[in-house]
Amino acid sequence: MCIHPLPATPRAERILVIRLGAVGDVVRTLVAVSALRAAFPHASIAWLVEPPSKSLLEAQPWIDRILVFPRDRIRDALLRGRLVVAAREIAAMRRSLREACFDLVLDFHSILKSGILSAATGSRERIGFSRPFGREGAWLFATRRAALVRSRISRFDRNDGLLEFLRVAPRPDPAPLRVPESSLETMRRVLADGPRPIAVHPGTSPSTPHKRWPAAHFATVIRALHRERGIPSVLTSGPDPRERALADEIVARADGAARHAPQTRSLGDLAALFAACRLYLGGDTGPLHVASLVGTPVVQILGPTDPVENAPWRGVPSRVVRAGLPCSPCRRGCASAACMAAVSPEAVLAAMLDLLDRTPVAAAPRPS
User: Fold this and answer.
1) Residue 319 to residues 55, 202, 283: CA-CA distances in angstroms?
2) Is residue 228 domain-shared with residue 344, that is, in the same domain?
3) Count of alpha carbons within 13 Å of 267, Cβ hemisphere only?
4) Residue 172 above 80 pLDDT?
């Protein structure tokens, strides 16, 4: 996958991983970073992340330090015209990166922002991606650049390509995302009534409504699954009130076959919830990758999303259901979301039943 790997794995005692952005992108980097830990067992590994994903990384015992890029505070200060406050935040971030004295920086994100942050460390060994995976001029800030053979690969494979550049072997792990035993036991107690449920996450981010499957289709599948197998579903939703409204509609249409999931106060709690469920159903969202990385089989419903770049982690059983219209995949989506509506409830139900038949009921993810 990597065209020209380094002659040997570099030595490092203080490593910084940079992967900002959405929860799904951060989660999909965990597999590679867990392999990095195996290759550098005695090094201190820090991760520079933005606030939404911090709680998920805090539960990972093999990450030694979490640095938070104050994206929201800087943006808010700039929008309010408080340039001095924004400058102070940026200066404080730069100072903390410099003082850590990292001797190896791995920019898994490789955009302009992450490239600047990588350079701000002052490290002499800054590794990122060459184009096209290095974007917005990010490669200009790297001292070494990983060139990959293909331009259309999954996010997991892309991250593995950076490992290959370092001559670090990917390490298979049955559940790279650790779930604390206490959190898992709490969720198991809350969900104790009846068989292990299916986790259903129907929402998407506010900016991607074109990735949502119709509520009526979700309800049809949930009712059919309960009727045929007696398995209930629990609905999860994000902080956006529109996501909660969507979950409310599905629960109302499910005729008693579904209920709202118990409250989760952090991404770690959400991971524990998914680990306690038998299967996950949802679209192209971060929670799907959270579910797969705790070892829960997933059924992914895709419309405009590229099925190669956004494939589920191959370490767990999964099924991808899509209609494959001529206009799909696409980058922008459209208001009609025809490619999502064209995915039939029958096809999704068949994928779920197939996974359930192939996955033993007793197979539960391993907590940390």
Assistant:
1) 28, 16, 12
2) yes
3) 25
4) no
